[in-house]
Amino acid sequence: MENNIRIRGAREHNLKNVNLVLPRNKLIVFTGLSGSGKSTLAFDTIYAEGQHRYLESLSSYARQFLGQMEKPDVELIEGLSPAISIDQKAASHNPRSTVGTVTEIYDYLRVLYARIGIPHCPIGGEEIKKLSVEQMVEKVLDFGEGEKVQILSPVVRGRKGEYHQLLKDLHKQGYTQVRINDKIQDLSKSISLARYKNHNIEVLLDKLEVKSENIARITDDIEQSLKLADGLVLIIHKKSEFILNQKLSCPDHDVSFSEIEPRIFSFNSPFGACETCDGLGTKKEIDPNLVIPDRKLSISQGAIMPLNYKGNNYYGMVFRSVADKYGFSEHTPVNQLPENLLNEILFGREVPEYIRVRHFMHGRVHIYHLKFQGIIPWLERRYRESESENIRADIERYMSQSPCPTCEGRRLKKESLLITIGSKNITKVTQMSVRKSLEFFENLKLSKRELLIAERILKEIKARLKFLVDVGLDYLTLDRPAYTLAGGEAQRIRLASQIGSGLVGVLYILDEPSIGLHARDDSRLLDTLERLRDLGNTVLVIEHDEATMRRADMIVDIGPGAGIGGGEIVAQGTIDDIIKEPRSITGQYLLGQKKIPLPDQRRKIRDKYITIVGANEHNLKNLTVHFPLGVFTCITGVSGSGKSTLVNDILHKALARKLQKAMERPGKFARIEGTEFLDKTIIIDQSPIGRTPRSNPATYTNVFSTIRELYSKTKEAKIRGYLPGRFSFNVNGGRCDNCQGDGIIKIEMHFLPDVYIPCDVCSGKRFNRETLEVK
């Protein structure tokens, strides 16, 4: 096999006919300025060619159902392995996707609990064990040679009745003695039982000594009891009594379990999911605080947000009538209304009352009676009954998610949570951090039989948990929703999954895996990358981190500049080779010739602060934090310490709700102070900015709006009566009708990649001839 990956004539995007030789089974770092062409070479050329070749190996029938990647602009790539990309795209936005499901750990947990989990009675909490006849015989033999035992069949347990017929039938079948309410009685004699009292009736089958020659006799007694007592056997040894059960049921409380299967632990299956929330763990409900976000306002001032209150519109008329009926003024601030009255406005009275509404329409007064059910029940009914997506979306603005009242956020049915391993049900395990989960399974005590069944499953679970610890994600919980993960966290989870797969001979391409990682965890990540390499894989990493570069087998510096000034291989080799290259900006920083300058004077912190009091979300422990205004503030800490929770989930959302009436609910905190010093909050995160193929930097930054305004004010545009909309490629009028303003025509090729050609009418200029005449 070729020991190198050879690239010749790569010209994708800004690459300038790049030729490169990369050694296989090494850790290689691509570095350089942002925009120099690193991602173009790694993802758009090497990875794209790998995917293209894989798809080419499939049949033409299969290819038409798969997304096609365009063949990159490169002359030749030799020695290319199967390529896997691990980028920083956010994890699934599906609310059902969790860390446990993404890593497949939860799938193994479901199998583990189905195979060795111990069910418990929901009433008394006793263990329920299902035993075969052979296991029951073993239990009796375990008492020891020569021990005396009695075998009884519990035909009635804690039920009322006289049981004349049952006792007669038992006597006819040849049984001589029964134990009734702990007293042995002879069936040949008349037995009278109180009709309205609970009774226990057990048929005495045998009294014997535990001996090897009595095994057949013990087996026969047990089988008789199982038939008589519907799967139950009572064993008396000395002064102790033992109920043995052939079925998953509690003999004391008449509670039965269905067969334990992996699907009853799945919150994506109707067999396991909580019926109230369908396995989501949360329920969307109308939030009174979103319905009335500012209680300083009165109803007439628009305090009730969903109503769009105006004095002369429909809702204005209705609430004027409600105010008359309930005895308050619509001009009174909401925070001055009695609490019970506000509850009646929001939730209605226990028995809804009719109100008399005077509605002015077309110059006439219409009087009718309306049953007032309360704002929130009215919104809930509209949400349920409306078929309009717009109406439902509008009502959702006033809804917030809260833990499901039935499962309390645990997603599963109550029956599934009664099954435990090591005294913990499956939800308690997923609520622990990855590190604590690993400790739990490493210290788990199992019987020989359980260990024989679960050994391979436990090995997989522990290995995958260990991989998550190694990539610095030991602070995550397995029930953490995948959509709440940062891009770097999602990437490291995918990395851990790949290590767990044990593939060899693969080319892995990663995009800055160290982003968001604390220096404490950096070395563990590098150990993981080296382990991936040592399995027999080539690991190609786009990275700016110095520690990663120093541990790499090879560094490729791409540049020297960005955009049109980049696209060349500036230097290639070890870190010493990079430092020796005078054109390498990376080398100059590594050598210390260039540094990020520190300010000689820092801006003074004034007396204006934003203060968060009592932050309690996730792992935050009742924090009070003062954020100074007018200065550059850095929030730092190890991975998982609570930085994002404090800043993104509490500070930003609380400010957005206070200043911009945003509907998102912030994390738990007591209060926020200092909002009077601000008028707006903006969060700049890692989410992509472009929503459509038509979006570009000019449209996103609104510069294009100014450009369109400018063109509409030219002399030629005024003569022709062109407005700014004429110069938009998103609307009819000024854009090219042939390509709809795209500038290109898409030609579908079915099982081949789609072909894009410049529009033959506008030649890729996106506008029609008349619009382009305005200069």
TrEMBL record:
Annotated Pfam families: UvrA_DNA-bind, UvrA_inter
Superkingdom per UniProt: Bacteria
Record carries keyword Transmembrane helix: no
Record has DNA damage as a keyword: yes
Gene Ontology molecular function: any one: zinc ion binding
Compartments, as annotated in UniProt: Cytoplasm
Any GO BP annotation: nucleotide-excision repair
Source organism of the structure: Berkelbacteria bacterium GW2011_GWB1_38_5
Alphabetical list of Gene3D superfamilies matching this protein: 3.30.190.20, ABC transporter ATPase domain-like, ABC transporter ATPase like domain, P-loop containing nucleotide triphosphate hydrolases
Protein name: UvrABC system protein A
Cellular component GO terms, alphabetical: cytoplasm; excinuclease repair complex
Domain UvrA DNA-binding, first and last residues per copy: 287-397
Domain UvrA interaction per the UniProt entry, residue ranges: 132-238
Chief localization: cytoplasm
Family affiliation: Belongs to the ABC transporter superfamily. UvrA family.
Keywords: ATP-binding, Cytoplasm, DNA damage, DNA excision, DNA repair, DNA-binding, Excision nuclease, Metal-binding, Nucleotide-binding, Repeat, Zinc, Zinc-finger
